Structure formats: C-alpha cells, structure tokens
C-alpha cells in the first residue's frame, strides 16, 4: 500500500481523532461502527473482560497478544476496548490507534507504526495505545514488532495484537515476550475462547451461578462439595441447559440465535465452514471440512488411527491428513489430547485423541451436508469437558493450550483409558496435580467406570448426566456442574 492509502485507512479506522480535535463527543463513532452495530442484532449483553486491564488500567508499556478462532468476537472486543478508552477523562482519544491489518504486508505494518505516530504527533511524548487487529496474518510480524519495540518509541506504548491463528514461523515468545512486553504486564498471551457454559447461562438468564470457580486440583475439595450440594436441586434444569449448550456452542451469535429462535442459523454455520475451509483445506472441495469435522467428532472418544481415517477421507497419505489436523489446532478449532503417564509426561509414539474446540463445530457437517450423521451427546459431553479442563489449566499457566499439554489421557496396565488424567499445574504453594476425570454421560450405572479411576488413583471425578454421588472415593458429578466448577 502507498503511504496515502495507509493514512486514509488510519483516519477511517480512528474516527475519534477527528471528534477529539473538533471538540465533539469522542464516543459518537460507536453509533455507526459496523462491528458494534452488527452485534445489536445478536446482543444478549455478554462482554468479555479479557482486555479489562487495557481498557481500565494504566497506560504503560504492556504488550498483549490476543488470539482465538474467527467469529468469536476479537474485533468487537477491540472496539469495546476502544469505546471505554475514548470515554476516559485521563486519556486523549488521539492516543488511541486502532488499525485493521487485513490484506497488509510486512512493509505496510512498518509504515503503519511510523505513520500512526506521525498522525498523532499532537500528543507529543504521551504513550500511545495500539490495537493491531489481525496482525498475526502478516508474515514476519513478530520480528518487525521486536525491532520497533527495541528501537523506537513504540517500545514505550501499550500494544494489543490480535489474530485468528498461529504458525511456527512466528515466534511470539522469543521475539515479543522476552523483555519486550512491559514491566508490569501479566498474562501477555491470551486466548479469546467461545463463551463458557457459565457465560451462556448468565447471558440467557437461565441461571446465574454466583459461586467462584475452583481450580482443577480442587474438584474434590470442601469448597467444591459445598457448591455441588448447592446445585443439586438444579440438576434436571442444568441437564436441559447442557444439552442446549451442546447444540449451540459458545460463539456469541450462535448463543443468541439459539436463545431467540431455538436454533443456530444455517448462515452462521456456513460462515464457520467458510472460515475453516479457507484456513484448513483451501484447495479441496467444499464438503472436505464438514466431513473432516464430523470424522473427528465420531472418533474423539478414542485415540485417532490417522492412517485409517486418512484413507476414509480420501487423502493420498497420512501426512496430508496430519497437516489438516494441525491447521485445525492452529486455527483454535480443535485441541490435542495426548497419552500421558502418571506424572503427566507425554508418551512419545502413542496415538492421540483430538477434540473440537466448540460443540457447534460438530454440527456443521450434518447441518450443511446430507448423509453426515448427527453428533452423539455422549461424545459431545466428553469434548466439552476436555475444553473446560484445558481452558482452566491454560488460565493458570499461559501457553498450555497451544503447547498441547493442558490435558492428557492415561492408559492403565489393564488397558483401560482414563479420559483426563492428572496433569501438573503451578500454584502459589508449589506444583499441584489436577483431579483425574472420566466422562460418562449416564443417569444410571456409573460405578463400573468409577472403579477404574479409583483403582488407579484412589480418587477422581466421573462426569455424569444427572447422577450426583459424593459418598465414594470417586465422585459422580453431573457434567454441567463440572463445567461450572472449572470456568
């Protein structure tokens, strides 16, 4: 892009500059902003607090990398953050620089940093707040921002970088986290996930869980027991809410559509399918991604036989199948669950499980392509719990989701599998081990599953459909209550 084109984009992306210079309301732009106006049709009041420290905290030299799946609301979150910043009396709106980097090159990014500061030169030495939307799509972006942080005033500014994927050529930790993400910045790498069950229940006024979540090693603690007993009268209601959640997932628009009309629209499912087709299998026919997602859902409760599934889906070899699976994880649409030992270490050479990162992704195939079987609620429950555990672990130690070691399954000496074995998690008092868990979506007959986990660990949780029983070493807790305990 030419400099004049970049200047035009910067002015268009930052309407609050002109408003502030003219003495007008710096918040007025929100009435015409496409992202915020579009949300009104699907707004249940849900707002992520993932950038609360940027919107409401000190303007310092923090750098945050925010990633997550497409259509989850990253751009809307940036606009919400901009709106809050524009309303603060201690900040001049001209300190705020938002830019949508779609379609830009590395050279364009370099000029954006230069021209953004030039266009706000009336702010002098005051720190800027940069909101760089979809910067991770620019190849080489981490090395460029490293240079800017090391050699220009950009290094003193607050910077938020967003993106919908990660790749091995962009070394965020090496280039941006080592001494370049601010003196007081915490949780420098963040993931905006779809709404949790708790978020959905609150947004839809179905139930307002007022209790605090517990950490993964506290699932059998006195606090957890108190919460479980408090929720016992709501087990049947939570079962219905859980089934609804397993149908709609947590993408904000999908939650609103399901709440308002009883179903997620085909148009939104097609949006998700288009995103995944572009990011995962752009050269294949249109039904490749729906079939891939359905295959993963059908096999998520057992380790993947990649060679067999590659042949079933028509890939020439297992390598092509592996590439697509890894693209799914890089797009935050799926996560790996590797086999681990009793200490939480990965067992090399073993087969791994894979779970889709939101229940709605499991419905893309059967909803958009005839002949693809509907998801099974037992498997959907296991996948949703895998995501809840992984998100809880990653919340306590940043990077665990992307490192594929937030969850793991264990194979006992007798050949039994424990869905989610113990994994080590840091705590203020030292390393803790998560409570092992089995997913068993049943209303009767849970003890056989419990004996396996009791025999190996002498404790644990069996996530059931409606059974609640804490009288044994392994507790039976309904799956939705487990999800509410964790996040």
TrEMBL record:
Organism listed in the record: Acidithrix ferrooxidans
Domain of life per record: Bacteria
Pfam family of the protein (one): AAA_14
SUPFAM superfamilies registered for this protein in UniProt: P-loop containing nucleoside triphosphate hydrolases (SSF52540)
Name under which the protein is recorded: AAA domain-containing protein
Domain AAA: 61-200
Cited PANTHER family: AAA+ ATPASE DOMAIN-CONTAINING PROTEIN, ATPASE
């Amino acid at each position: 892009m030419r400099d004049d084109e970049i200047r035009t984009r910067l002015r268009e992306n930052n309407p609050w500059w002109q408003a502030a210079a003219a003495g007008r309301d710096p918040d007025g732009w929100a009435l015409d902003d496409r992202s915020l106006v579009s949300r009104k049709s699907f707004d249940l009041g849900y707002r992520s607090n993932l950038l609360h420290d940027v919107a409401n905290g000190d303007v310092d030299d923090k750098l945050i990398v925010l990633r997550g799946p497409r259509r989850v609301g990253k751009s809307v979150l940036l606009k919400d953050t901009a709106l809050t910043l524009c309303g603060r009396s201690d900040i001049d709106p001209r300190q705020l620089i938002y830019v949508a980097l779609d379609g830009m090159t590395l050279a364009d990014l370099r000029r954006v940093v230069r021209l953004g500061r030039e266009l706000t030169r009336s702010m002098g030495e005051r720190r800027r707040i940069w909101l760089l939307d979809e910067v991770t799509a620019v190849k080489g972006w981490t090395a460029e921002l490293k240079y800017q942080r090391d050699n220009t005033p950009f290094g003193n500014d607050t910077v938020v970088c967003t993106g919908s994927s990660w790749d091995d050529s962009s070394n965020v930790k090496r280039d941006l986290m080592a001494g370049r993400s601010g003196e007081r910045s915490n949780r420098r790498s963040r993931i905006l996930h779809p709404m949790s069950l708790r978020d959905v229940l609150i947004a839809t006024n179905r139930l307002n869980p007022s209790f605090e979540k517990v950490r993964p090693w506290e699932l059998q603690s006195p606090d957890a027991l108190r919460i479980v007993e408090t929720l016992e009268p709501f087990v049947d209601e939570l079962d219905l809410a859980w089934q609804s959640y397993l149908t709609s997932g947590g993408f904000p628009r999908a939650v609103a559509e399901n709440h308002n009309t009883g179903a997620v629209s085909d148009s939104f499912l097609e949006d998700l399918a288009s995103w995944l087709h572009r990011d995962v299998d752009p050269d294949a026919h249109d039904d490749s991604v729906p079939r891939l997602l359905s295959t993963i859902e059908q096999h998520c409760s057992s380790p993947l036989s990649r060679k067999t599934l590659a042949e079933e889906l028509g890939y020439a070899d297992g390598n092509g199948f592996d590439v697509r699976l890894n693209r799914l994880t890089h797009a935050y649409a799926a996560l790996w669950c590797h086999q681990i030992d009793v200490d939480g270490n990965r067992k090399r050479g073993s087969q791994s499980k894979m779970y889709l990162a939101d229940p709605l992704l499991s419905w893309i195939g059967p909803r958009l392509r005839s002949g693809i079987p509907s998801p099974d609620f037992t498997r959907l429950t296991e996948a949703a719990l895998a995501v809840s555990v992984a998100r809880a672990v990653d919340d306590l130690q940043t990077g665990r989701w992307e490192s594929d070691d937030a969850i793991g399954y264990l194979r006992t000496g007798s050949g039994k599998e424990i869905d989610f074995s113990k994994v080590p998690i840091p705590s203020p008092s030292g390393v803790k081990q998560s409570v092992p868990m089995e997913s068993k979506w049943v209303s009767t007959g849970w003890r056989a599953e419990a004996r396996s986990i009791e025999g190996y660990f002498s404790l644990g949780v069996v996530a059931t459909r409606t059974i609640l029983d804490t009288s044994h070493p392994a507790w039976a807790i309904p799956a939705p209550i487990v999800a509410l305990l964790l996040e």
